Structure formats: C-alpha cells, structure tokens
Amino acid sequence: MKAFDSTQLYFNRAADQIDLTESMRCLLLVPKREVQVQVAIERDDGEVATYIGYRVQHDDARGPMKGGLRFHPDVDMDEIRSLAALMTWKTAVVDLPYGGAKGGMAIDPKQFSRRELELLTRRFVDGIHDLVGPDVDIPAPDMGTNADVMAWFMNQYAKYHGFSPACVTGKPVELFGLPGREEATGRGVGILTYKLLGRIGRKPGDTRVAIQGFGNVGSHTAKFLGEAGYRLVAVSDASGGFYRADGLNVPALLRYALDHNGSLTGFAEADAISNAELLALDVDVLIPAALGGVITAQNAKAVRAGIIVEAANAPIYPDADDVLQERGAIILPDILANAGGVTASYFEWVQNRQHYRWDLNRVRQELDRVLTNSFESVWELAATRNISLRAAAYVLGIGRVRRATELAGVC
Ligand code: NAD
C-alpha cells in the first residue's frame, strides 16, 4: 500500500464516524498545492548534480500550513503528500492555528559534505521561496534535517523577502530558535506515554520499553523515559539494534551517539539484535521512532508489545493496525504522539513574531499543558464513542478542520 492510500484509509474510517459528506471528504483530502523543483548543485568533486525538491501544501483552513523538511533516499511525492495530510490532522488535534504541509528531497544526507548540504538547502529555497513564508507555509526539521538546515533556510529566504525569522522553525537557539524545540518531539512522546500508562495503571519501573530509531526523536524519548524510571531494554538505528534485558544505560547510549556522529554502531554494552527482532521483542511498550511503514500485515502478528506509541509518522499500515487492534493492543497514533515538535515550533513562531523568548522551563510547562489537554480530549472521545485512540484523534482533527472550512465558506 502506498503512503497516501494509507493516510486516506485512516481518514475515511474516521469520516464514516462523523458522517462526513463525499464532497467534504474530497475537499479535505485533495492537497491545496503540490510543487516539485529542480535542485542543482556543484558537488565537492566539481560535478554538477541535480535533485528534486518536493513541497506539498495540504490544507490551510485553520491557519498557515506547517510541516517538516525531510532529507531521506525514500522521499517521493506520494510520501510527502501523505505526511502533509498527517500534519493537517495533527495541528488540529493539538488545536494549533495551523494547517498542514511537508517537503523534502530524495537524498541521503550522510553522503554529502556540510558545504553540499548548505548548497542543497539554499537551492531548494530558491525554488520555493515565493510559495512559503510566515503567513503561508512554515517548514521545520524532520528526518535528515536539523537546526543548521533551518538556519540556512532562514538566511536564504531573507535574501528574497528580508528579515523574517518566523519563516521556518527549529532554528539554532542562538539564531532565533527556541530552547527546548530540539527535544520537544521526543519529550512529547515521553509525556504522552506517561499519561497513557498512568491511565491504565502501569508503573514506570515495571514497564519495559523498546525504541526503534535513535535520532532526534528516538534519543530524546529515551532520555525522558530513562529519567522517568522506565526500563529501556532495546534501541536501534539504521545499522541495527541493541538489547539488554535488565535495562540499557541511557546516559551511556546518548554519550556514545554524541561521540559517533549520531550512530550507535559498535555500542558494546548490550547484545546486538536486528531491527526486525526489535519490533518483535517481548516488551510492554514499543516506540517506532524512525521510518514510516515498518509494521505491516506481514510482521504485525510478530509484534508482542501491548502498547505502541507512534513517535514516527505513519509507522503502522492500516491492515497491520487491524491485526494489532484485534488482539487488544493500545496504539497512541502519530498525529497525537509526535505532536510535541509542532507544538514547540508554534511557540517558536509566535515568539519570533513578537521578538520575545521564553526560557526552557516555560517551554516545557506549556508543552506539557498543550499535550495533556490534547491527550485527555482524545482519550475521552475514544471512551465516549468506544473507538480506538487513532479513530478518536482523527475524528477530533477532521471535525475541527471541517468546522473551520465551513465557517470560512467554500464558495
Ligand atoms: P533523524 O534523522 O534525527 O533520526 C532518524 C533515526 O532513524 C536515526 O537514528 C536513523 O539511523 C534511524 N533509521 C533510519 N532508517 C532506519 C531503519 N531502516 N531502521 C531503523 N532505524 C532507522 O529523524 P527524526 O527527526 O528523529 O525523525 C524520526 C521520525 O519522527 C520520522 O518519522 C519523523 O517524521 C518523525 N517526526 C519527527 C519530528 C521532529 O521534530 N524531528 C517531529 C514529528 C515527527
């Protein structure tokens, strides 16, 4: 199944719950704008190389469109379209005044020098600068991009439109960024996992957790859960996984990744396992925090965790979701689970526009408040309608976008 088909299926299941008309389904599903631009750079060896940059602006009924920039070899228009739609429902679930967008390039950032990555970013901005901006569409980091990429984006955008730090979020703290933005997605995953486990009466010390992916989101989730006393028994990155039944030493893992350019390859204080083995471990909580589409109809029966927290975007295909729900697994869906990042991005955007900045404590308090309120709304809706947390999150998000669309008037 393609990525957008999968998002569409989740959408339609929730739309059935609220009797959404066919015309409104069509209006909410069809992206507002899709562009692809040529991104050509001179590589360090003097060769000219050409790539494609994608940006999909899905819906702006509730405000300027918001969504990350992904640099990963698997990027294509279908994946970006699916991720852009997810952003529309996500910003609505946490009730931020935004719509949804996403962008990216099909490149492996590890194969480029820093100079080449800067050039790629600047040429991408050259291609899309007149379609984005603080009141239109605001990019942020995603897989393969970081604060440095956002700084280059802001600087290149300023060459066309003047000083405008709110054109992008996730910038370095020293350059109009926000303390706590970098940790916010992982911290949010941690906060929401804690809320969920609290609801079902589980104690941190008795809870074994496995996390797939140890980049921005996976590592900050590990840090938060480790500090909260959970037993993190397995982690992985693209090169493979590590398992220790008594619990991994999280500070040692974080230090190792920091010293090895983000990679866990060679970490010696645990047994080596594959990514497929990690997904099938006997743990209480499984947190996919890397790629989409990792739990499929083929491997869903092997997944043993009772709770799955979707830190990654779209890690579970709908047919796999059916298998997991049937055996009673509780799934915290991506459009809520990883919404901490866009929430902190919203704080950054607001403060850029006010030329004012909160300190880290204030950012963490506000993040906790927004995510807790959203979790409670989704939990209550799921209980009232007797539906899954995923269906409830979609019902809440789609309902808010529909209401804004109707209020603004379509004709
Ligand atoms: P990242 O690039 O910082 O890290 C990605 C991690 O995944 C790395 O550890 C990498 O080695 C690992 N990985 C890549 N391919 C893998 C594979 N085949 N198997 C196992 N691990 C693999 O990316 P990130 O920003 O942490 O994003 C991770 C996920 O979270 C993505 O799905 C992204 O869309 C989602 N997300 C990120 C943010 C954010 O603020 N960064 C916000 C919301 C959602």
List descriptors:
Rossmann fold; alpha/beta; binds nicotinamide-adenine-dinucleotide; 411 residues; 17% strand; five-stranded mixed beta sheet
Which hetero ligands occur in this complex?
nicotinamide-adenine-dinucleotide
Mean pLDDT: 97
Level of helix content?
40-55%
Beta-strand fraction estimate: 15-25%
Query: Which CATH-level-2 architecture of the largest domain?
Result: 3-Layer(aba) Sandwich
Number of strands: 12
Strand order of the largest sheet: 9-8-7-6-10-11-12
What would you call the shape?
A: globular
CATH class of the largest domain: Alpha Beta
H-E string? HHEEEHEHEHHEHEEHEHEEHEHHHH
Can you tell me the CATH superfamily of the largest domain?
NAD(P)-binding Rossmann-like Domain
Largest sheet composition: 7 strands, mixed
Radius of gyration, CA atoms, in whole angstroms = 20 Å
Structural class: alpha/beta
In CATH terms, what is the fold-level topology of the largest domain?
Answer: Rossmann fold
How many H/I helices? 14
SSE blueprint:
Elements: H1 3-17, H2 22-29, E1 33-42, E2 48-59, E3 65-71, H3 77-93, E4 99-105, H4 114-128, E5 137-141, H5 147-161, H6 181-199, E6 208-212, H7 216-227, E7 231-237, E8 240-243, H8 250-259, E9 271-273, H9 275-279, E10 285-288, E11 307-309, H10 318-326, E12 330-332, H11 334-337, H12 340-354, H13 360-385, H14 389-408
Parallel strand pairs: 3-4, 3-5, 6-7, 6-10, 10-11, 11-12
Antiparallel strand pairs: 1-2, 2-4, 7-8, 8-9
Helix pairs in contact: 1-3, 1-14, 3-14, 4-5, 6-7, 6-12, 6-13, 12-13, 13-14
Bound molecules: nicotinamide-adenine-dinucleotide (NAD).
